[in-house]
Amino acid sequence: MKTSRSRSRILTAGGALALGAVAALVLSSCASGPAAPEQSDSGGKITVWVDPPRVPAAEAFVAANPDIEVDVVQIDGTVGGKTVQQQFAQFDAAGSGWPDAIFFPSNDDIAWATSSLSNYAANLTDELSDVIADYDPAVLSMCDVDGEIRCLRNDAAPDVFWYDAKFFADNGYTAPTTWEEYGTLAAQIATEHPGKISAFLGDAYAPDRYLWASDCPTNDRVSETEAHINLDDPNCQRAKTLLTDLVDSKAASALGIFDADAATAGQDLVMSPGALWWGDYLFNQTWAIPAGQMQATAPLTWDGESSPSTGNEGGGLWGMSSHISGDQLENAKKFMTFVATDPAWQVELTTGLPGYGPVQDDWIAKQSAADYFYDTDATFAAFKEAISAVPGNHAYMLYNTGSVWTETVTPALVAGKGMDAAWTAFGDELVNQAEAQGYTVVDSK
Hints:
By secondary structure, the protein is an alpha/beta fold. It contains 18 helices and 16 strands. The strands form 5 sheets. It has a 6-stranded mixed sheet.
């Protein structure tokens, strides 16, 4: 009897992808445009593409399904990279070569994977309806493309509000509950404790942290060819006012959270909105902030509004091919269901809060055992509360808002030019890049 190991192959991008590229290029030399192939059935064997952190997910599936033959291909996981998109353009031209399922390296990849030129990502609305039903709609909102669910979230990554609870207790501060209180308190702490930081503004997630949280239309998809972008919108201007106050009061760092110097600067972080994965990955594993200091609380509310509003940083997407049928399709659906829902991956191995609702409490129970946070129960309660506070009018687009931010805002702040200059440069380049990708940009809808 064949073992699960003999029924699978773990391949690398340098091997399988290179061979796939050669085959696709040969075939595409005879193609005049995107093909519309018949759905294929390999007889059941499936090929899945995963980035390095998701290799354990694929291996767990292989172990749990020894009768399914699987090729696991490890791909470049660089966020914002174009390697995978270029591979798929070759496959689209050739009419073959696509993986049966994929963990997209960048969430923005879902934009080209669902475009009419590619149409790779299958509509999962009916195919995986039972799985979809157990997601919070807010978690799957970015997978909803024109009313069809075209991907599954691996993990939920909403921003909570992080603060150094020990520092707050020692100095008599109270955690803010509104964005405006946050800005005021950040300025006060910067005055009373020079060098303390209340924001990191230099990384590609910064616009998600502040602009998405304010429901600012930077990624508002009207249609496949039309985008609503308007940085003069009141929701954008309130975010700009907050950012200006943070910069002018010297409460914000121009560093990004992944910069080489961020671990040192992070020791002076007293509060910030940030993804729930900041807790273990950033504070504990990367910055080595001692246990018993950091705590999360519920997302902040904007003055005049009754509900909190927060951004989202990451939370990977799984996609399935629209080009398969029969046993190949059924096994790909089993894979998609497993990586989205099975505790063998989503509780035992993944580091982020599962996007799939029914396993979230088990994941929280496992993570709580470390007792790293100042108030563990309050922190994990905030995680779950944040899920439904992410505005839904934010799509992943062919342009990358985070890259535009780091190309414009970050260098302006590093040069000491202030938020006005940074904001103008960001807005101009965002529109330029949207139009370069073929969108018609509108300032209202």
